[in-house]
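Journal club side-thread
Mid-discussion, someone asked how the predicted structure for our own chain would compare to the paper's figures. Pasting it here so we can look after the session.
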Amino acid sequence: MDKEAGPDTAVMRLDDPWYDVPAPGWGEPDGPGNVSPDGRPWPAAQRGHSAADIYLEVQCSPAFREVRRRYRRFVVPAALAFLLWYLAYVVAATTAPGLMARPVAGALNVAMVAGLGQFLTTFLLTWAYARHARLHRDRAALELRWDTQEMTRGIDR
């Protein structure tokens, strides 16, 4: 693919630019890489399992389940509430045109206020999701990511 940027513009990079290189010796089968920075052993790394085995082990871990539980505890109720609010708006617009046409202030009617409320709700929900992720999930998920990358370092995937 030849373009202005050169022939390698369509090549996908698989390396992670945010990954910090660990200390020398980490990730080797017989070296200190079998122990996490806080001293906990990584059983799959000690037994020489494949990356798939390690990812399955992480997926079954209590830390991973806790991150997923925190995610679901926010997303499921928030998505249901928003969908019910949207459905109520659509049903009211189709079944109660008299109510929706009622003026609120000047040319602004109930339908316009409810429609603008949909936009406001979307922005508020996005803000609440980002805040919840930052406060309740991001740190634990990042720790899982680092542990998993350390466990799989040096394994052919």
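Post-session note: Strands lie at 103-105, 108-109.
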